[in-house]
Amino acid sequence: MTLPLGVLVSGNGTNLQAILDAIEDGRLDAQLRLVLSDQAQAFALKRAEKQGVPTALVERKNFADRSSFEKKILEVLKKHGVEWVALAGFMRLLSPEFIGAYPQRIVNIHPALLPSFPGLSAIRQAFDYGSPITGVTVHFVDEGCDTGPIIAQRVVDVSPQDTLESLTEKVHHMEHELYPKVLQWIAEGRLRIEGRKVVIRK
Ligand code: GRF
């Protein structure tokens, strides 16, 4: 099935770029119906425009409360026929109401091995902690902060020579490899959630 995908972004959009590239060269069977940002200056919007993907900007400051802000996002996603949502550096927590509108159809990528180092600056958290390994997690989104059922993880070694910059580069590289892969499993209908466990059909 060609996956009718929407991507929510707030920033640079290197993960969005990895998704765009994977679609372009046939590794990901998805139609990117919309890229939506909550930040006007997000470079991710430019990446989408360059590729001819529809974009939308929905800024929190234009809404009285979170609920009307999220309602607008949902309205735009539905209008564009988005059936699965991938968060790619979208810097906001989603409410239970929002998640309920796309039940078990919202995924996120996090730059650490959850449940370690959730939240902001995860690469720095792992680096400062002195972990000999860190990595990348793709998970379903629930009401918590980076707490939803884990789909896939990849390990990144932290060497004694690593600086925060070199580690950041390694983690991002791994993200760009893993996210399109997981989205392709979704496109192939291979994921099933059993409680907190995600089963991936071979
Ligand atoms: C990534 O590290 C992602 O894991 C996290 O936010 C960052 C977004 O980077 N959720 P980019 O905008 O995709 O370059």
Any chance you could write out the topology, listing elements then pairs?
Blueprint: E1 3-9, H1 14-24, E2 30-37, H2 43-50, E3 55-57, H3 66-79, E4 84-87, H4 96-101, E5 106-110, H5 122-129, E6 133-140, E7 150-157, H6 164-187, E8 191-194, E9 197-200
Parallel strand pairs: 1-2, 1-4, 2-3, 4-5
Antiparallel strand pairs: 5-6, 6-7, 8-9
The structure holds 5-O-phosphono-beta-D-ribofuranosylamine.
Walkthrough of the structure:
This protein is α/β, with parallel strands linked by helices and 202 residues long. It has one domain (3-200): 3-Layer(aba) Sandwich (Rossmann fold). The chain is 35% helix and 25% strand. The protein has six helices and nine strands; from the N terminus they run βαβαβαβαβαββαββ. Strands 3-2-1-4-5-6-7 form a seven-stranded mixed sheet, sandwiched between helices. A two-stranded antiparallel sheet has the order 8-9. Helix 1 (14-24) packs across helix 6 (164-187). The chain is globular. The two termini are 17 Å apart. The model has no long low-confidence stretch (mean pLDDT 98). The site of 5-O-phosphono-beta-D-ribofuranosylamine has 12 residues, from helix 1 and strand 5.
